[in-house]
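Chapter summary example.
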Amino acid sequence: MPRTGQIWDEPISARIRRLTKKYKLSWLRTEIAHSKHTNFGEKLNGDLNNKVMKGIMDSELADRPCNCNVKSLLPNGDCMYGGCCRKSMVVYELKCEVTGKSYIGKTQDYLKKRTQQHATDVWKVIESGRAKYGHDKWRGSGGYKGADAFAKHFAQLCRNERNSNQVKAKLKEIMKPTILWQGDRIQCMKSVKSAW
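The structure predicted for these 196 residues follows.
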């Protein structure tokens, strides 16, 4: 019988492999799992963090009231974002009213600003495709390397528009933005702080 101190001289996984070979137990499949369980200190820190952060707000990208101008309002005078154009830290859906397809995205910026970036990408796809392949011959990304699924899809639907303003006007007609989830900027970014 080995001394207790000798048992731990060999890693347990090596000992199991050795004994499996020695006794010809090839059918035996062993796995060793290690998982970290929350200890009492971690629970206290988590609770303390929630209490300390209660009521703390980030004013840099705080929700603000709608500031849509005539260009970005719908024909009936409503905000196309339902008044949520200046909400940040969101997961959003941009649904195509023509095909029923949806693009799901996330942004820390205001929703309106992010959708304007999408519209710019749509125009860049169209512009790049026309320059490289001709007015009616381009497909897909049109050669624009920054094209995502949204830009490729809506560029096909806006391909006859002559400038970026016409693309934005067309998108206003055929795209419906919706916020699926909104987070608190400080709580969502807390993991960055804890990594330090």
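To summarize the output: Residues 15 and 109 are 55 Å apart (CA to CA).
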